[in-house]
Write a structure and sequence with these properties.
There is one protein chain. The protein is mostly beta strands. Among the domains are: about 1-60, no CATH class; about 180-280. It contains 3 helices and 18 strands. It has helices at about 1-10, 70-80, 150-155; strands at about 15-20, 20-25, 35-40, 45, 50-55, 60, 120-125, 130-135, 135-140, 180-185, 195-200, 205, 220-225, 235, 245, 250-255, 260-265, 270-280. The chain has a 6-stranded mixed beta sheet, with no helix packed on it. Strands 1-2-3 form a 3-stranded antiparallel beta sheet, with no helix packed on it. Strand 4 (about 45) and strand 5 (about 50-55) form a beta hairpin. The longest helix is centred in the N-terminal third of the chain and has 10 residues, at about 70-80.
């Protein structure tokens, strides 16, 4: 056996063939040609002190490979299209093109950037479940603070608080009044602010428009404030002038400078009911 090993070690092998259980070696032929040596092959291929190939029950294992050349690396990388058993990628920048589906929990201590992402179940940051989706109902939860930009965005987006049941306000409530609205006898007042400032258009007027205040959302209240003692505005009760839509405590209200009539709209009765008036 020693003589055979020495013989093989001294050869310049041009071809190697494994057929069935026999290995054949050809020497210096440029092709296999006629084998000069044949011997049985067991379940392993030994090269030097390494066993890179072994077979067990028809399962061939490539093993103990310490390095691969560039060609082999490219071949393997090109052949990989799934990584079903991948559990971690440490300290690397990962760029993935196309659509990628991740069916496991994803954890990161860095700052990943996504140009577009679909998250099926939820997003957890630290120990907090920030976004969750149940039956297409998305819930934002456990937000402890807002930066100034987000606060401004939310405040600007809110135009109704239909579910508000109570509020505690520390400080002064500021209501922005309307600009002065010039009125003619046939023009009704459209309520656009909690304080509506009005005056006759060039002279004193008595509003005969029906309705005199345009219908609004049920429960809306407004204060109508006169701005001129010369160009006064008179609003007339519906009992005196039909269909004005005003239920006043007297037949009418003449608004001079600083005079205020407060009314609230009842959609069921289709009337603006007087709450208070002041003659200033």
């Amino acid at each position: 056996m020693k003589n055979i090993k020495s013989f093989i070690a001294g050869l310049s092998i041009s071809a190697l063939l494994v057929a069935g259980s026999v290995m054949a070696i050809g020497v210096n032929s440029g092709g296999f040609g006629t084998p000069i040596l044949g011997f049985p092959v067991g379940s392993e291929l030994v090269i030097g002190s390494s066993t890179p190939l072994s077979d067990s029950g028809g399962v061939l294992t490539l093993q103990t490979v310490d390095t691969i050349d560039a060609t082999t690396e490219t071949t393997i990388e090109s052949a990989i299209d799934t990584l079903a058993n991948l559990t971690s990628i440490q300290g690397q920048t990962i760029t993935i093109g196309g659509t990628t589906s991740i069916n496991q929990n994803v954890s990161t201590t860095g700052a990943p950037t996504f140009s577009g992402a679909t998250i099926t179940n939820g997003l957890t940051m630290g120990a907090t479940a920030v976004l969750t989706d149940v039956s297409n109902t998305l819930t934002l939860s456990a937000v402890d603070a807002l930066d100034s930009t987000t606060e401004t965005t939310i405040e600007s987006a809110i135009d109704t608080l239909a579910g508000l049941t109570s509020a505690t306000i520390a400080g002064v409530i500021v209501t922005t009044p309307s600009a002065d609205v010039p009125l003619s006898a046939g023009s009704g007042v459209t309520v656009t602010s909690h304080i509506m400032r009005v005056a006759g258009d060039g002279s004193a007027v008595s509003i005969t428009a029906t309705p005199s205040l345009v219908d609004a959302t049920d429960g809306v209240c407004t204060k109508i404030q006169g701005t001129s003692d010369t160009n006064t505005v008179e609003l007339v009760d519906a009992g005196t002038l039909a269909s004005t839509g005003l239920a006043l405590s007297a037949t009418g209200s003449i608004l001079g400078k600083g005079d205020i009539l407060e009314v609230c709209y009842d959609a069921g009765d289709d009337l603006w009911y007087e709450v208070s008036r002041s003659n200033n």
